[in-house]
Amino acid sequence: MNLTEKQQAILNGSEGETLAKVMKTMVRYGEVFGADSMVEITSEYNHLVTSFGLKALSAVYELFDQLIEAGAISKQQFSMDPRPLDPNVPSNFLQNFVFKNFMYTRQEEYEKQLKQLGLMNENAFTCACYMDEVGNTPKKGDILSWSESSAVVYANSVLGARCNRNSGVIDIMGSIVGYVPYFGLLTDEGRKAKWIVEIKTSKKPEAQLLGSAIGMKVMEDVPYIVGLDKWLGTLDDAAKTYLKDFGAATASNGAVGLYHVEGITPEAVELGRELLAEDVKTYVIDDAELERVYKSYPVIWKNKDAKPKLCFMGCPHMSIEQLTSWTVKVEEGLKKNNQKKVVIPTVFTAAPGVLEKFKETEYAERLKATGVIVSYICPLMYMNNPLSTKMPVITSSNKLRTYTSARYYTDDEILEQITGGAK
Amino acid sequence: MRTFTGRIVAEGTITAPAVVSKGGLNTLASFQKALQFGDKKATCGDQNNPDLYGKAMAGKALCLPRTIGSTTGGLVLYGACSLKRQPACMLFSEPIDSLAAAGAILADIWIDDVTMPVIDSLGEEFLEYVKDGMTITVKENGVVEVE
Questions:
Q1: Is the pLDDT of residue A385 over 80?
Q2: Predicted ipTM?
Q3: Which residues contact A284 (CB under 8 A, 6 or more apart)?
Q4: Are A33 and B98 within 8 A, CB to CB?
Q5: Which residue, A55, A376, A377, A406, has most beta carbons within 10 Å?
Q6: How far apart are CA A300 and CA A302, in angstroms?
Q7: Chain A CA closest to residue B108
Q8: Pairing of strands A223-226, A78-80
Q9: A397 Cβ partners below 8 Å, 6+ apart?
């Protein structure tokens, strides 16, 4: 690794032992991937994945204490993934007891640490930090030290920023030293596609199902997707929402950090098929392939015919466009099925800033009238315990399905279930 | 017995029984329940991994192509190491991914009393040959013996 004089000095301890260890961590991280230099982070804000004060991860908070005590703090503020708890979300006495006494016992203390380390503001807890209402939207070409797989893949693909799939802790360490190792998705070569994915479906493919299929096929490679522009049109709010959910599924069902959509995403618009690497492989997705992928998902509910007790929508967090369009869909579904309120307790999750904006619209009261609850919670963190695992929870999030016992249904199927139309 | 040679990501030598994941290991899905609820064996909780689901990972030679999924992956591995519930070693058939590398490096640099040798680029043949329960010995210079 060729370090600048300043970087070498930090590594040698010019700014203290702790900062030297942080630099050593970043240098070793880069060396594993053949990086020959460290490049400056240029984004205004960072984004961190570790939003939870989980007892089991005490070592992480102790490490953060070391950083704070040594003054190894970044000048770059950051947003965080969503909070793990929200009293608005239905939970029973036992769940609350477990959440507060066994799982998130370090939440309060951890949030104090985050303020000391540079949290943007009290509302900066969301996995969809790139939304206008949150204010952490990198520019094309910005170099980031972000984590959160769904945010990284969105920033790379939809915004044209440059970021590797960094782990939690590495995210903040990059920001502290101000540099990240130059490899992978930061480089032009690393952004080339090794797969062409041809979309040949008879209707607009379900975003979360398409992302899952591609993620499981290409794993960490970059796919170049053709035929999706026919269904998306232009990169408007609806297309961005689609790509948010699609990308999260590619990143959680596989390890995709960047995708190009022909005619839609900025680099594909600019460079087209120049983005294809040599010896590119092809994956054709038609209706039958999506059906095959859907049927391959295991259902790990003890009673596979159990009546769902909860429905989560919004992993990753919903956009205002989604909250609005789903309000109308739920209203219409209830009307069609002669119901007044949703028949399954249903939670729509979104960033605090998005929820505030949504509350200013007429749709907020209309959604409330349907019985749907809105929350800033992280559904994944809610589900990560044996009590919630035993609950039959449904979702149209392929990320939530992957990490928890939640059962996946398509958007239309979810709508039928929560509005009382499903048999 | 067969010998494979890879690249050292984290140094160390060890002998342990193998557990094998033919597909990518989703670190968060695999370790989360074990870490949160005191499972010292670190039983794999990933429903989508038929090779590993329900099997103990702590103290085992974890053989895999790569890790996938959430970017909490590195800190989850770091957390497993801090609680001494980490695999005895991690042996990757492919070049290591950024999340597993982060976990291995963080543990190596920031935790004093933990050793988890990590070798990558052992090749497809390694993953085809190794089976659950085989004895794995990680030697110096990236050499892995399987018997």
A1: no
A2: 0.94
A3: A197, A198, A200
A4: yes
A5: A406
A6: 6
A7: A25
A8: unpaired
A9: A208, A245, A248, A312, A313, A314, A315, A316, A379, A406, A408
Which of A5-8's residues contact partners 24+ apart within 8 Å by CB, and which partners?
Answer: A7/A38, A7/A177, A7/A179
Interface contact B66-A255, CB threshold 8 A? yes
More reliable by pLDDT, B85 or A403: B85
CA atoms within 13 A on the CB side of A88: 15
Report the SS3 class of residue B62. Answer: strand
Tell me the two tokens of residue A11: 């590594």
pTM to 2 decimals? 0.94
The owner of tokens 């022909």 is A262
DSSP string for A389-423: HHS-EEES-HHHHHHSSPEE--HHHHHHHHTT---
CA-based nearest residue to A208, from A313, A76, A305, A102:
A313
Q: Smallest CA–CA separation between B58 and chain A, in Å?
A: 15
pLDDT of residue B47: 77
Put simply, whether A96 touches B (Cβ < 8 Å) is no
Q: How far apart are the C-alpha atoms of B123 and A313, rounded to whole Å?
A: 40
B34 pLDDT tier (thresholds 50, 70, 90): confident
Largest CA distance in chain A: 71
Q: Please judge whether B110 and A21 are an interchain contact, meaning their C-beta atoms are less than 8 angstroms apart.
A: yes
> Would strands B89-92 and B61-64 be described as parallel, antiparallel, or unpaired?
parallel
CB contact under 8 A, B109 and A24: yes
Structure tokens given for A154: 């969105």
- Whether B72 and A49 lie within 8 Å, measured CB to CB: yes
Q: How many helices (H) and strands (E) does chain A have?
A: 19, 13
Of the pLDDT bands very low, low, confident and very high (cuts 50, 70, 90), residue A54 is: confident
pLDDT over 90 (residue A4)? yes
**What does the pLDDT look like over A400-422, one tens digit per residue?**
998 888 999 999 999 999 999 87
Catalytically active residues of B, by annotation = 70
Task: Supply A309's token pair.
Answer: 């007790």
Provide the H-helix boundaries in A42-99. Answer: 58-69, 93-98
Neighbours of B25 (CB within 10 A): 29
* A30 interfacial to chain B (CB closer than 8 Å): no
Nearest CA in chain A to B9: A32
A393, amino acid identity = V
Of A60, A148, A403, the CB nearest to B75: A60
